[in-house]
Amino acid sequence: MTSVSMTVNGKSVNADVEPNTLLVQFIRENLRLTGTHVGCDTSQCGACTVHVNGDSVKSCTMLAVQADGSDVTTIEGLASGDDLHPMQTAFRENHGLQCGFCTPGMIMSAVDLVKRNPNPTEETIRKELEGNICRCTGYHNIVKSVKDASEKMGG
Amino acid sequence: MSVENGIGVSVKRKEDQRFITGNGKYLDDINKFGQTHGHFLRSPYAFAKIKNIDLSAAKTAPGVVDIFTGADMTADGIGGLICGWGINSKDGSPHVAPPHPCLATDTVKHVGDQVAFIVAETLQQAKDAAELIDVDYEELKSVTDVRQAAAAGAPQVHEEAAGNQCYDWEIGDKAAVDAAFTNAHHITKIDLINNRVSPNPMEPRAALGEYDPGTGEYTLHTTSQNPHVARLLLSAFVGVAPENKLRVIAPDVGGGFGTKIFLYAEETTAVWASKRVGRPIKWTADRSESFLTDAHGRDHATHAEMAFDADGHILGFRVSTKANMGAYLSTFASAVPTYLYATLLNGQYKMPCIYAEVQALFTNTTPVDAYRGAGRPEATYVVERIMERAARDMNMDPTELRLKNFIQPDAYPYETPVIMTYDTGDYPLTMTTAKDMIDYTGFAARKAKSAANGKLRGIGSSAYIEACGIAPSAAVGSLGAGVGLWESAEVRFNPTGSVTVFTGSHSHGQGHETTFAQLIADQLGVPFESIEVVHGDTTKVPFGMGTYGSRSLAVGGSAITKAADKIVEKAKKIAAHLMEASADDIEHSHGVFSVAGTDKQLTIGEIAFAAYVPHNYPADLEPGLAENAFYDPLNFTFPAGTHIAEVEIDPDTGVVEVVDWAAADDFGNVINPMIVEGQVHGGVAQGIGQALLEGVVYDDDSGQLLTGSYMDYCMPRADNFPNFRVETTNTPCPSNPLGVKGCGEAGAIAAPAALMNAITDALGKEIDMPATSEKVWRAAQNA
Questions:
Q1: Which residues of chain A does B202 touch, with a Cβ-Cβ cutoff of 8 Å?
Q2: Residue B285's closest CA among B431, B123, B482, B165?
Q3: What confidence tens digit (pLDDT) does each residue in B426-482 have?
Q4: Which end of chain A has less neighbouring CB within 10 Å, N or C?
Q5: Residue B1 confidence (pLDDT) above 70
Q6: pLDDT bucket at A77, cuts 50 / 70 / 90
Q7: Residue A23 has pLDDT above 70, yes or no
Q8: Which residues contact A80 (CB under 8 A, 6 or more apart)?
């Protein structure tokens, strides 16, 4: 067992974990933050995307011990209290989700995308979302959601 | 009068709040006190005899609670999985349904077949213990390709199925078709492969079984599209427990697309074993297991011939299909290439006669069953590919050939030669709408511009029809279905005027919590926010047949409407009493009950309160305001439309860019246009995925699955698609009270043919799906 401590959604957490514990396992099983999902085992689908020190990371590709000392944000920590993040609102307003399983990862990736590209074109959005798979929406309304949010985020 | 958040309004979805904040409750998010973890040891071979299983080392491994094999299940009287639809061969003999044990007993028949179930304190311990199980296999020669399975001397997957044949079925009038071909001016022939695909809902399948020794009750949480059907099968056929001692819960489910309809070995084993170990057991598939065990879709090899007169009118259609069933018959597998496929081979056309024969075959592959569209995409692919080729053969514009042959809007009800009675539609309108949307007449100029840039441009159409809203119970019963296909609902007013709607439909992305609430908001005038839709729990919901075949609104929604009608009838009597009038004089409009010719009125909320606090109440009425209804549809519904694809191909790389897409669909009345558009987007994307990128591949020699992860199986990404143009035309469906037809499968049904026809147009030659860049590049080099 190895001791890890980090800040998750603004709260300090620490635990003893097996060294091979993935960050996503730590988030889901130790912290019971089940909004971060696991959709594959080859780091392709992006359902597990979270922010580590402000950058989007697939939490299935990172060990919990590698995140030691980091500042982690999951989908549960994106809103400020009852005030949704503009990306969350945009997904709802533009019907950017159906079954909802890929949505947390998609939203976390999209927030990072807009941070790096404040005025993304449709083409940029489509290319940047390559690491997140959605099987329901055909991406049409996801692209629309991200564009809408980027405008509201003051890009 | 239109109602706020009522029918026809693009209301934002109720369910989104929990999904966008990470508060959805999917199966793997649920944990129980004392929970153990299950893991399946799976066959590494496509076909092998099991000579011995040695569990001794594994049973004493750290954390292992117990390990089960097929022998344990057999000893406990647990049966295998069944197929719920009987198909008879041409000679009248029933289809061959070999045993389908949850855990293999003496042979394994596909890679991934379940061999043992390890239950341990942690998942890692269960996986580690699986490594210690010593299975002595004798590998056998396998067969995975459906055409090879039919060949003489092919390995025999089941002793019971000579020549690997499950059934050899036919429909239509062979003699009439033979005569039509004799008199034909022109005959077009085609051979097509409808590639095998993996449905890939983003949430992997999972199960959580538990047993309460105090009540003798089992509870199974499972990723199901139809929990009541799972309960029925587990109880009546597998024999886990009687229905009244078995609760099945399908919580938030992350996509289904058909593959979560079926009862699988994993949830069956987990719920059975939970009593044996005396603790809850959770199993969650990893993606590799999903590829190995989620029922696949399609996998047809078809030869088709169409006969025309000198004017291009269809005279007859002849189709012969080999359908791959995989290693075992999945829950509804037998119906897919028969009654869900060949009955739609009439397309949107006036076809005087049709004859189709379908041979279903077993192979050493993952079972194949319904995948979004289920049979209808395969039918559309055959009809629309051959129409396109015929038009080219006869030097006609493909859309003109279609328009020439369409059933006309005044011809309904229209009886096809393959047992369907189309009820309504306007096929010329949907086609001309789609052509306008994509500027069909401007295509030649766009093609020239692409050519100037060294690119090949193509355009292709697909005029599809589907039979959905499944289905009238008597009709499907006469065709071999083992179940009725009604739906049930309860509309329950609470004393304070809010409403809980219980539905047997199951939402796994379709937005039922919103659409069904709109129905009640509209009909009963209850504020949208005060309506809760409950689904997915056999203990809460009276009954249900679940969600598939685009049936939720047409059948499930109609059941809700019927229950609401009963509410209105009762409320009228209460209102009459409270307002001292005759019930015959009470008029109702969107939840307001008034006495005709007066200004007296009561709202449904006031009536509900009186029903639960019946201090002043009609003597002959029961208190309460809650009504149940079962709805059995009168007919299938027949959504139809035209999709037109436009592609640009780089001949140097073989990359196909889908540059434009026009979808004109007739779904009948639309309750929530936003949700309907979303369903079309998703369906089209899956259809494009099948045509362009996806394909399950098995190694011919070893039978190994070569596309077992997202590294090997090409899932469509955001940059594979254009924005989609989506419009609806509307001829209300006459056979259900809502006038709706269903929209969930249309895109997946229409898209593959449209895209492949566009690629054919660009290349000037035909290739099979998936049109990977390598295949397209080769074709372009030899053009």
A1: 37, 39, 45, 47, 99, 101-102, 133-136
A2: B123
A3: 999 999 999 999 999 999 999 999 999 999 999 999 999 999 999 899 999 999 999
A4: N
A5: no
A6: very high
A7: yes
A8: none
Contact B91, B167 (CB under 8 A): no
Neighbours of B140 (CB within 10 A): 18
Backbone angles phi, psi at B534, to 5 degrees: -115, 135
Determine, yes or no, domain membership for B240: yes
Tell me what pLDDT residue B783 has: 63
Q: Which residue has the tokens 């004017």?
A: B311
> Both tokens of residue B401?
């050939």
- Residue B3: the pLDDT is 86
Give the mean pLDDT of chain A: 97
The CATH number of the domain holding residue A60 is 3.10.20.30
Whether residues A7 and A58 fall in one domain: yes
Instruction: Tell me the pLDDT band of A154, cut-offs 50, 70 and 90.
Output: confident
Query: For chain B, first and last CA: distance in Å?
Result: 60
What is the rounded distance in angstroms from the CA atom of residue B119 to the CA atom of residue B129?
9
Instruction: Report how far residue B362's alpha carbon sits from residue B326's, in angstroms, rounded to the nearest whole number.
Output: 5
Q: Where are the beta strands (DSSP E) in B74-149?
A: 107-108, 114-120, 134-139
Q: How far is CA A61 from the centre of its chain?
A: 13
A16/A67 same-domain check = yes
List chain A residues with CB under 8 Å of B677. Answer: 95
Determine, for residues B681 and A97 on separate chains, whether the beta-carbon distance falls below 8 Å.
no
What's the mean per-residue pLDDT of chain B?
A: 97
Beta bridge partners of A71: A7
* Distance in angstroms (rounded) separating the CA atoms of residues B740 and B553: 7
Q: Are residues B726 and B674 in the same domain?
A: yes
> Between chains, do B22 and A101 touch, taking CB under 8 Å as contact?
no
d(CA B357, CA B190): 15
- What are the tokens at B418? 């393959």
| Residues A107, A47 within the same domain | no
Which among A36, A38, A140 has the least Cβ separation from residue B724?
A140
CA distance B446 to B533: 49
Last residue of a domain, one of B631, B660, B681: B631
CB contact under 8 A, A139 and B21: no
Distance from CA of A65 to the nearest CA of B (A): 18
Cα B573 to Cα B360: distance, rounded to the nearest angstrom: 57
Domain final residue, candidates B631, B649, B669:
B631
CB–CB of B16 and A97 under 8 A? yes
Q: How far is B413 from chain A (nearest CA, A)?
A: 34
* B782 pLDDT more than 80: no
Q: What percent of chain B has pLDDT over 70?
A: 100
How does pLDDT run across B96-137, given as a tens digit for each residue? 999 999 999 999 999 999 999 999 999 999 999 999 999 999
**Hey, what are B47's tokens?**
């076909």
pLDDT at A155 over 60: no
Any domain includes B664: yes
Q: Please write the tens of the pLDDT for every residue from B214-249.
A: 999 999 999 999 999 999 999 999 999 999 999 999
Contact assignment for B16 to A38 by CB distance below 8 Å: no
DSSP B640-700: EEEEEEEEEE-TTT-PEEEEEEEEEEE-BS-S-HHHHHHHHHHHHHHHHHHHHT----B-T
**Which residue out of B10, B14, B18, B21 would a mutagenesis test of the A interface target, given it has the greatest number of A Cβ atoms within 10 Å?**
B21
Rounded to whole angstroms, the Cα distance separating B285 from B349 reads 44
Alpha carbon distance B225, B205 (integer Å): 11
